[in-house]
């Protein structure tokens, strides 16, 4: 069973993206800049990997042995884990880290270092989310059975409280990813012929997942229990602290980029058609935030510039800030919305407001569209 083909409206102002792409390309040509990683990106990659691995080494070698010292190490690992996900493997899996495909392939494997599986991630994120952002039954990022992220999703009674239980589920996100999600996705993507499209059989993918999970558990659970001079319960507490931090960070960066009051949600007609062309669709379903916070943007891999990322996923995130003014001015020129929140707090607030509206049934698509037009 393959997924239904989605057809964007190629007649919907195609000149917008053509002009925008030419202007962005001109920016790189005139400034003699590569679209891929620079020294800042390489330094960040090393920093994030070290932030994750060095605390683990310090614990395993006994350099840090006290209870609170060990908890501090797990906390650092949580931020390192999220940093690897946001600022290292993300670019590599998009092919934007380097012009050399082999480099991208090698760097993309660091997702396995934090308990994931690179092939599943590419399918969910690159194939389904980026291609069909906020499209009902196509974007895997909003297809969650225990939360309602789209007004087109059936509303259940439990969703009424989702704005309150969402933080708990977000904190558990990478634990779920480690224990169940990769296996569930393997089953689903195999039925949709998406695993084979990545050059793997289902059996091969299953072996890779088992292998990755086994050595990850050995490295982050078995070895710490064996070598750290603390009760196993303390080690497990630290392990879960790491995952809780990572889950919250990842969710609170990605969700306010698409699931907020201002962005729109779509469903295809019977023939798989959508009303906008691909680029305008991305503009209507994506939002930026906290563009003035340099340190924040550095840590989250430039993903507070989600508009630029969705339009140009082949460009390394270290360049998003520089091209954002080009994207914003071109969007204004063509009367296309450019969603953004001044602060991270404003974006998160909008996300939870929408969660509450979707959960209680108070979401009004007409008012949301009017707000989006006003923002434009």
Structure notes:
With 376 residues, the protein is mostly helical. The protein has one domain. Strands 1-2 form a two-stranded parallel sheet. The chain is globular and about 65 Å long.
Short note summarizing the structure:
This protein has 18 helices and 2 strands.
SSE layout:
Elements: H1 15-30, H2 39-60, H3 67-87, H4 89-94, H5 101-108, H6 110-113, H7 118-129, H8 162-171, H9 173-191, H10 194-197, H11 202-227, H12 232-254, H13 278-285, E1 287-289, H14 294-299, H15 306-311, H16 320-333, E2 339-341, H17 344-360, H18 365-375
Helix pairs in contact: 1-16, 2-3, 3-12, 9-11, 11-12
Number of domains: 1
Number of beta strands = 2
Shape assignment: globular
Class per helix and strand makeup = mainly alpha
Strand order of the largest sheet: 1-2
Number of helices: 18
Task: List descriptors.
376 residues, mainly alpha, two-stranded parallel ribbon, 18 helices, 2% strand, globular
């Amino acid at each position: 069973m393959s997924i239904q083909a989605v057809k964007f409206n190629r007649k919907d102002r195609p000149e917008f993206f053509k002009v925008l792409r030419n202007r962005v390309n001109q920016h790189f040509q005139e400034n003699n800049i590569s679209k891929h990683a620079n020294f800042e990106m390489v330094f960040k990659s090393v920093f994030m990997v070290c932030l994750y691995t060095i605390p683990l080494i310090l614990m395993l070698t006994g350099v840090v042995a006290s209870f609170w010292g060990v908890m501090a190490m797990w906390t650092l690992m949580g931020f390192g884990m999220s940093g690897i996900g946001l600022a290292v493997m993300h670019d590599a899996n998009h092919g934007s880290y380097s012009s050399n495909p082999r480099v991208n392939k090698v760097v993309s494997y660091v997702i396995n270092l934090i308990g994931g599986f690179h092939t599943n991630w590419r399918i969910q994120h690159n194939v389904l989310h980026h291609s069909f952002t906020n499209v009902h039954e196509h974007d895997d990022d909003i297809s969650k059975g225990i939360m309602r992220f789209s007004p087109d999703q059936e509303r259940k009674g439990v969703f009424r409280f989702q704005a309150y239980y969402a933080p708990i589920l977000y904190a558990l996100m990478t634990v779920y990813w480690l224990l169940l999600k990769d296996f569930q996705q393997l089953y689903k993507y195999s039925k949709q012929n998406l695993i084979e499209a990545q050059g793997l059989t289902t059996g091969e993918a299953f072996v890779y997942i088992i292998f990755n999970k086994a050595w990850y558990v050995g490295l982050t659970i078995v070895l710490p229990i064996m070598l750290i001079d603390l009760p196993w319960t303390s080690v497990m507490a630290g392990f879960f602290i790491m995952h809780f931090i990572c889950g919250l960070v990842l969710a609170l960066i990605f969700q306010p980029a698409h699931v907020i009051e201002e962005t729109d949600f779509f469903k295809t007609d019977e023939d798989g058609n959508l009303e906008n062309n691909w680029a305008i669709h991305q503009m209507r379903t994506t939002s930026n935030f906290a563009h003035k916070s340099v340190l924040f943007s550095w840590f989250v891999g430039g993903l507070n510039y989600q508009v630029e990322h969705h339009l140009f996923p082949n460009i390394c995130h270290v360049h998003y800030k520089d091209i954002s003014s080009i994207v914003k001015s071109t969007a204004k020129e063509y009367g296309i919305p450019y969603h953004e929140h001044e602060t991270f707090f404003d974006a998160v607030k909008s996300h939870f407001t929408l969660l509450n509206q979707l959960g209680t049934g108070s979401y009004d698509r007409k008012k949301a569209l009017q707000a989006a037009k006003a923002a434009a």
